[in-house]
Known about the structure:
By secondary structure, this protein is α/β, with parallel strands linked by helices. It has a single domain (14-171), classed as Uracil-DNA glycosylase-like domain (Uracil-DNA Glycosylase, subunit E, 3-Layer(aba) Sandwich). Helix content is 34%, strand content 13%. Its EC number is 3.2.2.28.
Amino acid sequence: MDGISDHLDHGLQIVFIGFNPSIRSGEVGHHYANPRNNFWRILHNSGLTPRLYDASEDGDLLKLGYGFTNIVARPTRGIDDITREEYNEGRELLRSKLELYRPQVACFVGKGVYTEFSRRTKANWGFQGDVPPEVDGVREFVAPSSSGLVRMPMEEIVGIYRRLAEFTQSDR
């Protein structure tokens, strides 16, 4: 199954970076399309989007200043299906994308996505101000995974994403 298209452009406020697309996302060609994934509800409830968007509208978020990519492009059932080689290749491709497009913020949707990219062993939720960014000028933000398998309370997840919404609103 082919990967799904990135939604990237110059001048974006945020690029959301996932591990890789789900099988459902691969089938329909849209980011965060699995109905058990809470991504779109989290964006809306945190104030990042003015309304609840559907995965089929992922390209429309470019108008809001938001883009999408993944560290690995190949859809899988889970992250356990991603190979070490895919992570190594994906890390370099992601770095190139961030260097080219230079969003204000790279939002890693899951600590594991960030640690795979940065090769750091730990990360806190939110902005990673205690370490230099992997790409100069691109702030790094670590948010909880939006997977329905995450056991963190939804209000806590939304609260972390709300910090990102407050940043984008203060930047306008």
